[in-house]
Each structure stands twice: as C-alpha cells, then as structure tokens.
Amino acid sequence: MIEKGIKPTLVTCNTVIKGYYWSADALKADEFLGRMIAEGVTPDSISYSTLINGFVREDHMDKAFLWMNKMEKEGLLPDIITYNVVMNGFCRQGRMQEAELVLRKMIKKGINPGRSAYTALKN
Q1: At 60, is the pLDDT very low, low, confident or very high (cuts 50, 70, 90)?
Q2: What CATH number corresponds to the domain at position 19?
Q3: By residue range, what is the domain housing residue 103?
Q4: How far is CA 62 from CA 7, 35, 38, 101, 112, in A?
Q5: Is 100's pLDDT higher than 80?
Q6: Three-class SS state of 44
Q7: CA 56 to chain centre
Q8: Mean pLDDT over residues 94-107, rounded?
Q9: Rounded to the nearest 5°, which phi and psi values hold at 41?
Q10: Any idea of the CA torsion for 37, 70, 12, 24, to the nearest 10 degrees?
Q11: Which whole-number Å values give the CA distances from 93 to 16, 22, 66, 121, in the listed order?
Q12: Rounded to two decimals, what is the model's pTM?
C-alpha cells in the first residue's frame, strides 16, 4: 500500500498488526508499528494493546513492558485486560517483582485490578 503511495488508515494498520498477532509474529508487528508511525499514522490503544498481547503470548515480556510504558507516555491508558495480560505474563515467568510493579501501576492509574489480578499473583 505504502509503496503505491496510498496512506493506510488506522483501521487498516490495526488489522495488519492483528494479523501478525494471529501469525505469532510480534516482532513483525513491532516493525510494522514503527513504519506506521513513520508514515504519520498515530497508533491508538488497540494498536498498542494488540502488540503488547502478542509479545506476552510469545514470552517477550521485556518488549511487552516497554510498549506498555510507551503507550502510557503517549497518553493512552492501557485497559484492565492489557494490564492483566502483562501481569500474568510476568507471573508465568516467575518474575513476581515486575508483576507487582504492573499491579501498582494499575492501582496508581485508578484501575481496580479485580480478582483475576490478585489470583495471578497468588498462584
């Protein structure tokens, strides 16, 4: 699309990122998001959350956490699902300090973690 001079819409870009998610290729989704930004398409919470979920799914927790922080710096608040996905990913890897950090971020942002967040930390 871009090669043909057609500027993609945000919806189109999010669809491509979702495609990479379903193909279990978060690194390509990451690369695409970078190109998307370079082309002047501003990511939204769906763009970031899909990428973050992809990295968690592939056990790239440092990348997931990095993008979650970037999302917040861009003024977009992750939702409870994104926070819980990241927290669960850290718990699966036994990285409890990072999981607790995510929990504290949720609370600080005014998001009620709910039962699933506490269950993840407990198990």
Answers
A1: very high
A2: 1.25.40.10
A3: 2-122
A4: 31, 21, 23, 13, 24
A5: yes
A6: coil
A7: 8
A8: 93
A9: -95, 120
A10: 120
A11: 28, 22, 16, 12
A12: 0.88
Distance of CA 108 to the CA centre of its chain: 19
Q: How confident is the model at residue 3 (pLDDT cuts 50, 70, 90)?
A: low
Handedness of CA 31, 12, 16, 69 (dihedral sign): positive
Local structure of residue 3 (DSSP, 8 states): G
List Cα–Cα distances, 46 to 51, 98, 120, in angstroms. 8, 23, 24
Predicted confidence (pLDDT) at residue 123 exceeds the cutoff of 70:
no
Tokens found for residue 88: 């669960």
* All residues at 6 or more sequence positions from 16 whose CB lies less than 8 Å from its CB, including other chains: 8, 29, 32
Indicate the number of domains in the chain. Answer: 1
Residue 88, C-beta contacts closer than 8 angstroms, at least 6 positions apart: 56, 99, 120
Tokens of 11: 């919806």
For the chain, what is the mean pLDDT?
90
Q: Are 47 and 26 in contact (CB under 8 A)?
A: no
Could you tell me the two tokens for 20? Answer: 């990479």
